[in-house]
Every structure is written in structure tokens, then in C-alpha cells.
Amino acid sequence: MRLLKATRLRSTPTIQSYNFVWLVPQMCPRAAVRFNGHFLTGNDMHTKDLARALRAFAGIADFDRSQELHRFAAFFDRGRNETVAARLKRAAPSAHYPLGLKQSLEAIESGLRLCGAIKPSGELAHIQTLFGGRANGSLEDFFSEISAPPRITDVTARRFKTADLNLAKRLSSDLAIAADNTDSFRMRLAELESSAPAGTATWTLVANQFIGNRRVYRDRKTAVRAIRRHFEDFLIQNS
Asked: How far is Cα 121 from Cα 124, in angstroms, rounded to an integer?
């Protein structure tokens, strides 16, 4: 049985968004359900799958909530199809957010959890980390803020004077690509640590970019350890 196919939802009476928490369990019996073609206990959700799911939910929301969900779906639909976690790594938390959209996502998350869809509900909980600051923002400001590119490390700082910028760029790119798979990331980080001719300044730059901080590391081992810890902490938070 497929869950939340758009054609099926169109025949469902329009309801208020806060009733998502009631509706989802009714449409989500435990028997081998799928979340828009994605197994509930299977692979990580990808951005195109999430966009289709959000549009399906928009079909049963009132007009205002529906428009918000459609806009949020468009944010995940554009660009290449990647894991939701990978997309969120490149997004920036907002300083203000629209309360209605967050309430809709919270209701969908709760409904999925009630019907046993633990992994998708966890994905939606992770997505809500984008909603930072106060609940008094407009949709336009919210999407502008979360779409802003991450802050770039100031490579002209004194601590990067001896850094190999080209090598740092290559290392950062390798780690970003490998981050979609836990085993691949661990293996690639170990390979780069042992083989890459990078000093403390270069690894500090890589760590700053990967973690998003401005910390100064005393040696390359400390920088690599910080990268590894950051990745492992991320896995624990989203397990």
C-alpha cells in the first residue's frame, strides 16, 4: 500500500493543518506502508521524495497552510536530488520564521510518529532545525535566510598563512561527497589523514569549513579528531 499519493489526497475533504496529527494515522496502517514511494524503515529520504510528500500534505490543508507547504516543497525540489541531511548541511537556520509552517511540520511529524513511521518523523524533526530565532517572520524572509550560503571562512586570517588553499578545497570536497554514507566518510577521512600532505593550518581550514566554526587547532590530529567527532555527533542526533 502506498501512503499519501497525491491523487488519493485530492479526494479527502480539506481540513485545518492542526488535524494532520489525526489524519496521518488514519491513512498510515502499519502494514508495509511507504512514504511517497520511500520505505519508512529503509533508505534515507531524498529531497525530491520530501518535496512530493509535502505537496501531498498541502492538498489537505487550508489555503494559507497549503501555500506555505508548497513553498517549502519547492525549496527541497530545486537542485539535484540528494539526501535531506546533505541539503540541510548547506542551509542556514533562520533568524525569524513563519509560525504556521512550523506548526504544520510539527503536526505531520507527530502524525507519522503515531503511525510508526519513526524514520520519516525523525527527518521532519531534523528539518525543523531550520526554524531558528523568533516566530514572527514572513515566508519571504524565512526562505531568503535559509537559502543563504554558509558563512565562508576568512582564509586571509593569520592562522591560515601557511595553509595550502587548493589542498584544503580538495579535502573539503572529498569529505562533503563522502558524508552521505557513514562508512565511506569514516574510511575517506582515515585515508586523507594518513596520505594527504596537509599541515596544521590546512587541516584547521578544512575543520573550520566542515564544522562551521572558527576554532584554532594546535595540530592536525586535533583538527581531524574534531571533524570526526562532529560527524559522529551528527549521526547520534539523527539516529
From this structure: 5
Within 10 Å of residue 69's Cβ, how many Cβ atoms? 25
Name the grid cell of 233.
Answer: 555527533
Report residue 11 as a C-alpha cell: 479526494
Residue 14, amino acid:
T
Neighbours of 195 (CB within 10 A): 8
**131's torsion region: left (phi>0), alpha (psi -120 to 50) or beta?**
beta
Supply 227's cell numbers.
571533524
Specify which residues 214 forms β-bridges with. none
The b-or-e profile of 135-172 (16+ CB within 10 A means b, else e) is eebeeeebbebbeeeeeebeeeeebbeebbeebbeebb
Strands 38-39 and 34-35: antiparallel
Q: With a threshold of 0.85, does the pTM exceed it?
A: no
| Cα first-last separation, the chain | 26
Domain ranges of the chain: 2-146, 158-237
For the segment 98-155, what is each residue's pLDDT rounded down to a tens digit?
Answer: 999 999 999 888 888 887 778 888 888 889 988 887 888 888 889 888 876 555 556 6
For residue 146 the three cell numbers come to 535559509
Residues found in the chain: 239
